[in-house]
Amino acid sequence: MDLSSSNLETLALIGKCKDNTKGKNDAKKHKYPVAVFFIVVNEFCERFSYYGMKTVLTLYLRDVLLFDENDSTVWYHLFSMLCYFTPVFGAILADTYLGKFKTILYLSCLYACGNVLLSVASIPNTLPQKEFSLLGLFIIALGTGGIKPCVSAFGGDQFIRPQQDKQLEQFFSVFYVAINAGSLISTFVTPILREDVQCFGSNSCFPLAFGVPALLMIIAVAIFFSGKWNYKMRPAEGNVMVDVAKCVAHAVVRKIEHREEKHEHWLDFAGDKFDRQLIQDIKQVLRVLLLYVPIPVFWALFDQQGSRWTFQATRMDGTLGVTTIKPDQLQIVNPLLILALVPVFESVIYPCFKKCGLLTPLQRIGTGGLLAGFAFVVSGIVELYLEPTYPSIPDAGMTQLNFINTLPCPLNISYINNNQVKWIEINATSYSFERNLNNQSIDITAQLISSPACQQMNLTIPTWTGRIKGASTKAFSVIVTGHNSKLDLMRMENEEPLDKSSTGQPRVGFVFRQDDQVPNQGNITLKAGERIVSFTRKLIASSSLFIQTDVREIDAGTYDVFMALRNGDVVMENLIGNITVVQGGSYTIVAQQSHFNPQLMNLNNNLLLPIEVTPPSSVHMLWLVPQYFVMTVAEVMFSVTGLQFSFTQAPASMQSVMQATWLLTIAFGNLIVIIVAEAKGIPRQSMEFFLFAGLMALDMLLFFYLAANYTYVKVEEKTKVNEKVGDEGKETKVPDHSLSPIKLGTENSKTPTGTENKGFSDDTPM
């Protein structure tokens, strides 16, 4: 669950409301604003739409748009990066030009159009699929990012403050629940819609998986608009981020143009045009923002839960009793753990450590970063155990030949590859894979080894000599059989299914001998209870002795195999054996007829020879739970604490700046992933995981160095003189809730010296 955006905005605002409820409340009772109902339901639908779409996005990029895993990762994180760049512009648009209501309404309509476009583009043969899918994602990013900083704040506008601060706190709690409910439900449901429903001739249904979130977004817009006549709408009053940008730009220009002027801080160059208090507030913001420099690396690791970790899950066994966990469905572990861990940390763990003087806010953030790195160490170790189960793909310019001996006697094969002679022996009804062969024509000699079973075959010529050619990076079956009393070797026309399926399901194809008992349209059918899977034969040349079927993804399990055979003029379905296929495996099943090879009648599953082309996924998907757990603990310590720290350390007038900058760190974190994925210089995924873990460790060393030189500030009730004079000419003192530094060493006009390190003390405002 992405605590970094709307959720954390809500948590921070809840904290602000709690502080305000400590003051005096008006005795007058105010009705609870009905308008917030529309806002909460709108937020639930929008979060369902966003997380539902994003949960299945990586697999859509890979399996439908046919990007490889690196490019799919790049596009996924490019989309995420844009989602966190656009909130800055959404906030400026709302505060300076349109107001919150119009900004939310207009951008939500744009958001819904992007969802609909993505859903329609995912339907085959409608629109140019790749181009319009990416356009839909771009529009969604503009919409979701643009409304991100507005919705919770607009809900807060519906209350009268400070009289309704208690109700406002309740609203934000309900708002937070709506966010979590939307993300939880959609993360569970959309993978089911994607995989368990078949539509438009495909084994999956991405149009439905994207269509349901699109429908929810349309409902969100309708509900939000229907509350128009109940909302309190504040006019646009300007955005402090614009003022900050102007002040900083003016200071930089004047510093360059007036080098003869001397100031204690470069921002003081803006004093000729901007308010002194604004300049002081920006100075404090910059001190906090210095601690933000290492933060993007954390988000680079965290956001890979939806990309690299999802791809990792596709190569694992998701079988769990009678059901199967979908690879993208595993992302639900994070929001479930967040809901469980946040109250535990806030009510139990943090108080215990505080009594011992440990885990101050900056220490929590640093510890969370280190835990994120450790989560990637765990994922790297899991990847090392997965690598032996991965398909062995021939290198460029090389090929693989799978020699399959269908005869009941052993066989010697010799071949010349790269001017070297190699000998192999293949047992009866067995097979041998010869990898990384030159993809040019290979000279091969086969010789039957004499045995009683061989003598019954009545092969007058027990040898075969010839040439077989493969194709670069591909594998082919070479069937060893007997034909016209001669030993014969035949390479199949279609390549073997080396890659694991994107869904994690087994991939199965059949090879069977063509003779007068096999009808021209004969199929092979698998049956397991009520499940029935049919394999159709591919078109072949009339001279071909063996027939290949299409390769299909099927559910793991044990199946009875039926072959259509001709008995006179009647085509009958005959049981020829059974097979067991396991999650993640790729199989070629050679089916033979008993009348051709009577010796096979004495074998188990007598007419079937299963070939395990690619080993199954033997590592269970639940082994990913530890890394999700560690990453979620890291998120609680790093992300929740980080934004709360920012809100307590920045002046109240600058909190929107802090929020915008926090979201930008997430955008830059996704940019780091894009750079690493685009480099494509890391040969193994495990090495990339360890690289990110090492990068996180170095990053946290930098963070601890910066934290050691940071001096906390605390909220104190100061008073300042208001320049406005009353009727009697007396000065009026008003409370000032701005932030003042602790033990700065000099007056406020000077930069804190940091001589006493409060970054690691327990005397904090948290």
Structural class: alpha+beta
- Outline: elongated
Provide the β-strand percentage band: 15-25%
Span of the ends, CA to CA: 24 Å
Number of strands: 23
Largest sheet: 5 strands, mixed
Multimerization state: single chain
| Overall residue-averaged pLDDT value | 83
Nearest-angstrom radius of gyration? 33 Å
Q: In percent, how helical is the residue content?
A: 40-55%
Put simply, the count of helices is: 19
Q: Which stretches are low in confidence, meaning pLDDT under 50 for 5 or more residues running? A: 21-27, 595-605, 716-766
Properties at a glance:
766 residues; alpha+beta; 5-stranded mixed beta sheet; 4-stranded mixed beta sheet; 19 helices; 23 strands
Describe the structure.
The chain is an alpha+beta fold and 766 residues long. Helix content is 46%, strand content 18%. The strands form seven sheets. Strands 11, 14, 15, 18 and 19 form a five-stranded mixed β-sheet that branches. It has a four-stranded mixed β-sheet with strand order 6-3-9-10, with no helix packed on it. The protein has a four-stranded antiparallel β-sheet with strand order 5-4-7-8, with no helix packed on it. α15 runs antiparallel to α19. The C terminus is likely disordered.
Write the layout of secondary structure elements.
Blueprint: H1 3-20, H2 35-55, H3 57-63, H4 69-98, H5 100-121, H6 129-147, H7 151-156, H8 165-196, H9 206-226, H10 240-257, H11 276-290, H12 295-302, H13 308-314, E1 319-320, E2 323-324, H14 333-355, H15 361-386, E3 398-405, E4 411-417, E5 420-426, E6 430-438, E7 442-448, H16 452-455, E8 463-468, E9 475-483, E10 486-491, E11 507-513, E12 524-528, E13 531-535, E14 546-548, E15 552-553, E16 557-567, E17 570-581, E18 586-591, E19 608-614, H17 625-649, H18 655-679, H19 685-708, E20 713-715, E21 718-725, E22 731-736, E23 739-741
